[in-house]
Design brief:
Layout lengths: L5 E7 L5 E4 H9 L3 H4 L2 H16 L2 H15 L3 H4 L9
Antiparallel strand pairs: 1-2
Helix pairs in contact: 1-3, 3-4
């Protein structure tokens, strides 16, 4: 597994920081409470991150979408796609 793989576009976080790699995203996910990690969006994000670390390629794009949805909720569907600018 290669957790140092980078997202094509960094993920803006609510606190103003930026997540750039699969490893950073995984560390962020692990720091969530157990209750939060057991929700469907976080379970999907974890699986996407794992597949991206194992296989790379298009899985990185998919993992980014799932991670954004877990962090920002359903609103992230359109706001954080590559080539768009967050409106906050």
């Amino acid at each position: 597994m290669n957790w140092s793989r980078r997202f094509d576009n960094p993920v803006p976080m609510p606190n103003g920081s930026t997540i750039r790699t699969l490893g950073e995203a995984a560390e962020y996910a692990i720091r969530r409470s157990k209750k939060a990690r057991n929700t469907e969006p976080w379970q999907r994000a974890a699986k996407g991150l794992q597949l991206a670390a194992e296989h790379g390629g298009p899985f990185i794009f998919i993992a980014r979408i799932y991670f954004c949805r877990a962090v920002h909720g359903a609103i992230a569907r359109d706001r954080f796609l590559p080539g768009t600018t967050p409106d906050y």
